[in-house]
Amino acid sequence: MEVNIQEINERIQQESAFVDALRMEIGKVIIGQKQMVERLLIGLLGDGHILLEGVPGLAKTTAIKTLAAAMKAMFHRIQFTPDLLPADLIGTMIYNQKTGEFQTKQGPIFANFILADEINRSPAKVQSALLEAMQERQVTIGEQTFALPRPFLVMATQNPIEQEGTYPLPEAQVDRFMLKVKIDYPSRDEELGIMRQQIAADIPVASPVISAEDVLKARRALHTVYMDEKIERYILDIVMATRDPRQFDLDRLSNYIAYGGSPRASIYLAVAGKAHAFIQRRGYVIPEDIRAVCFDVLRHRVAVTYEAEAEEMNSEMIIQEIIDTIEVP
Questions:
Q1: Count of H helices and E strands in the chain?
Q2: How far apart are CA 275 and CA 61, in angstroms?
Q3: CA 194 to CA 208: how far, in whole Å?
Q4: Is there a single domain that holds both residue 122 and residue 174?
Q5: Residue 41 domain boundaries
Q6: What is the pLDDT of residue 215?
Q7: Which residues touch 246 (CB under 8 Å, ≥6 apart)?
Q8: Assigned domain for 160 exists
Q9: CA dihedral 35, 41, 46, 50 (to 10 degrees)
Q10: CA-CA distance, 45 to 274, in Å (whole number)?
Q11: Helix crossing, 212-222 with 5-15: angle to 10°?
């Protein structure tokens, strides 16, 4: 089948016109943190969820709140605590004395954007209730099943410093997140801008520039972004190297990897690669798109052995070695 790249490129340039307006609107409120904002857009377009790791005060809540405001979408922040119950998240059945019947009271999960703050503070029961909603895009309360609004994006945060009294997410659950993004402190100039902005008389707020329908339309357009077979094979090589490094002359890594990326890794690398191209307003995927999203897609999917930990090797170092070794198409 003949593919007209120029035609696809022109179409994607039109379809992605809103990206610049959205970035500008978010940029009014958030100074710096370009990578976090970009990853939020990739998650939104790729219909995936994001796990954020960073110390407190790095504008994680502000970022997703601003994105929701720029879309005129519903946003709920849920603080995960050890005493949180699944009903606090998804809702419950309440007895109405007037009618003598049970009524459904929907929980805060019913929104377009959910910030699951410090997800590892709550026990497995609550985590699994959230993950069911993330995976199935629906919630069951009593005998009724309710579809969640679209788009639906969960951004969960973890504090990397405090690990006391936490319930770490099991590997199978972490795999449900499309991206795991690590965010760092702003630069000196950015922090000066943040400080000035926060002590000014008027703190800027985002205005709606796109609608939820625009996002759903962009998701449909995302599927048309062209990905060559060479790029597909490149993705598979990277993922296969996390499972069996010996195939790619990376024998040294075989003692360091406990297990590699699941098929979700390949799917999400392809989707995130297409979303990255879309954000760059390009109708075709290039190897740089895959390399740009590689760490965020794979860092939580490559588990290291005790031997790797003893030698101070982490999953990011392993991914870096794989990327450096595998031939770029």
A1: 14, 11
A2: 23
A3: 22
A4: yes
A5: 5-215
A6: 87
A7: 254
A8: yes
A9: 60
A10: 9
A11: 170
Q: Which amino acid is at 120?
A: N
pLDDT score at 234: 94
> What is the per-residue pLDDT for 43?
92
SS3 139: strand
Write out pLDDT tens, residues 74-107: 889 999 888 888 888 888 888 888 888 888 888 8
Are 167 and 98 within one domain? Answer: yes
End position of a domain, from candidates 197, 215, 233: 215
The reported pLDDT for the residue numbered 129 is 84
70 vs 41, 75, 115, 222, 236, CA distance in Å? 12, 11, 16, 20, 36
| Mean pLDDT confidence for 11-16 | 82
Q: Quick one: average pLDDT of 244-271?
A: 89
**If you average pLDDT over residues 105-126, what whole number do you get?**
87
Whether the pLDDT of residue 1 is over 60: the answer is: no
308: domain CATH number is 1.10.8.80
Determine, yes or no, domain membership for 220: no
pLDDT mean across residues, the chain: 86
Q: Interhelix angle for 263-279 vs 229-243, to 10°?
A: 140
Task: Please tell me the total number of residues recorded for the chain in this structure.
Answer: 329
**Are the C-beta atoms of 235 and 280 separated by less than 8 Å?**
no
Tell me the CA distances in angstroms from 119 to 124, 169, 211, one per residue in order.
10, 8, 28
Q: Which residues contact 77 (CB under 8 A, 6 or more apart)?
A: 61, 65, 114, 115, 117
Radius of gyration of the chain (CA): 21
| Separation CA 116–CA 43 (nearest Å) | 15
User: Whole-prediction pTM value?
Assistant: 0.88
- For tokens 């702003």, the residue is 186
pLDDT at position 289: 93
Nearest to 296 by CA among 88, 121, 50: 50
CA dist 47 → 43, 88, 187, 234, 297 (Å)? 6, 25, 30, 23, 14
**Residue 230 neighbours by CB distance under 10 Å:** 10
Q: What is the CATH number of the domain that holds 100?
A: 3.40.50.300
Q: What is the per-residue pLDDT across 280-292, written as a single tens digit (0 to 9) for each?
A: 988 899 999 999 9
Q: For residue 58, how many C-alpha atoms fall within 13 Å in the half-sphere facing its CB?
A: 22
